[in-house]
Design brief:
The chain is α/β, with parallel strands linked by helices. About 45% of the residues lie in helices and about 15% in strands. It has a seven-stranded mixed sheet, with helices on both faces. The structure holds D-serine. D-serine binds near residues 35, 98 and 176.
């Protein structure tokens, strides 16, 4: 069979060999990072096209450079598909990343220093939701709501109280480490009480929303942002969806507000991803993501672990290692798991008393193993492997677990047609 990357291999052996190594790493490990996925070869092929070469500042039929008729068709297809997927009135498919998408949303709707009510980062929020080491925290005045200390759920009483007290111009929902469904209607009611814009950042759950395994933020939200590479399983990049009344301001804030030329090869790959997500199989895929996460959560609970909110409704679980009475915490747990080929990330848990560098928890997600066709039994088995890894000190035992991981990985092959 032909080498998939034969030109790369002949021009740059150094980069090619790292690509090969990374492919092998992905094939031989169990990926549990809740924000990652394996894009299809169709998506990857769209990324590696001559569309990369074109400058197309502006929007379809309103470009600043010549030669954009075909590019216009591609971007228009992406826009039409994503509007259909999320039942959105308007879509901008140009944001290069989730962070620039959020920056554009703020720029389009707020003045510097305006107030935004959002979830605290340490409780599952995101850097662009007002962290003081991020542009958002420097440019806007964030007030943060929290999760309930007992249940780990969004404390709507606090959200309402803070909204009434601070009268924010925007209320933000949508998170990076929240294992439960988001009640968009409830947020809308609070936003209406104080006349705030409701902004949902659904980067983590976009695939679940597209597959109808989670409620759509529309019609409740005014504006929705998302990355395209997480549960949505597309190329790296982002989108902004909004109600028609924000369309002009959003488009202006993306270009020329925060970005220059759009990455049209990424936009083509987004179009492919939206097509894939519109298929009935994608619905099945997203339902299986949730079933796998729930099976994994159940197994952890049976093994005596404490999970934030005691389970999950979506694609991720947050294991509280301190409450689970383990002797390893976030940093060591992440490293130990990597040593046996299980890849996850350390994570703060609500009201964490440890540092972000070595927090109390680990975050585990099932989008990647589900893409590899693993089901509930494999999800339970992975929980057992995680448990054994975290509890043993024996080198031989860790080597045995690594063998189990390699064996499981080989039974669920990745990118079979990709021959390097
Ligand atoms: N880095 C992403 C995550 O892991 O949730 C958020 O941007």
């Amino acid at each position: 069979m032909n080498n998939y990357y034969k030109h790369l291999a002949s021009v740059d052996q150094e980069v090619y060999s790292y690509v090969k190594m990374e492919l092998e790493r992905q094939r031989n490990t169990i990926g549990l990072i809740a924000s990652e996925n394996y894009a299809s070869l169709a998506v990857l092929e769209a990324l590696a096209t001559p569309l990369n070469n074109k400058y197309a500042e502006g929007y379809p039929n309103k470009r600043y450079y010549a030669g954009n008729k075909i590019i216009d068709s591609i971007e228009s297809i992406a826009i039409d598909r994503v509007k259909k997927l999320f039942d959105a009135e308007h879509a901008n498919v140009q944001p290069h990343a989730g962070a620039t998408a959020n920056m554009s949303v703020y720029l389009a709707t707020l003045n510097l220093g305006d107030k935004i009510l959002a979830l605290e980062l340490a409780h599952g929020g995101h850097l662009t939701h007002g962290s003081n080491v991020n542009f958002s925290g420097a440019a806007y005045k964030f007030v943060h709501y929290h999760l309930d200390k007992e249940t780990g759920l969004i404390d709507f009483e606090e959200v309402r109280k803070l909204a009434l007290e601070h009268k924010p111009k925007m209320i933000l929902c949508g998170y990076s480490a929240y294992p439960r469904k988001i009640d968009f209607k409830r947020f809308r009611e609070i936003a209406d009480e104080v006349n705030a814009i409701l902004f949902a950042d659904i980067a983590h759950i976009a695939g679940l929303v597209a597959g109808k395994a989670h409620e759509n933020p529309f019609p409740y939200a005014d504006i929705v942002s998302s990355t395209t590479h997480k549960t949505l399983r597309g190329p790296r990049g982002a989108i902004i969806l909004c109600k028609e009344k924000f369309a002009k301001a959003i488009d202006k804030a993306v270009f020329p507000g925060t970005q220059g030329g759009p990455f049209e090869h990424c936009i083509a790959a987004k179009a492919v991803c939206f097509k894939e997500a519109l298929q009935p199989e994608f619905k099945e895929y997203t339902r299986q993501i949730v079933k796998n996460a729930q099976a994994m959560a159940e197994e952890f609970i049976n093994l005596g672990y404490s999970l934030v909110t005691n389970g999950t409704d979506n694609h991720l679980l947050l294991v509280d290692l301190v409450k689970s009475k383990l002797k390893v915490f976030g940093k060591e747990a992440q490293e130990k798991l990597e040593s046996v080929g299980i890849i996850c990330n350390r994570n703060m848990v609500p009201y964490d008393t440890r540092s972000p560098f070595d927090p109390s928890g680990i975050r585990l997600g099932t989008p990647m193993i589900t893409t590899r066709n693993m089901k509930e039994s494999e999800s339970r088995y992975i929980a057992e492997l995680v448990d054994k890894t975290l509890k043993t000190e024996s080198k031989t035992e860790l080597e045995r677990i690594h063998e189990n991981v390699l064996d499981l990985s080989s039974k669920f092959p990745l990118y079979k047609d990709l021959v390097l």
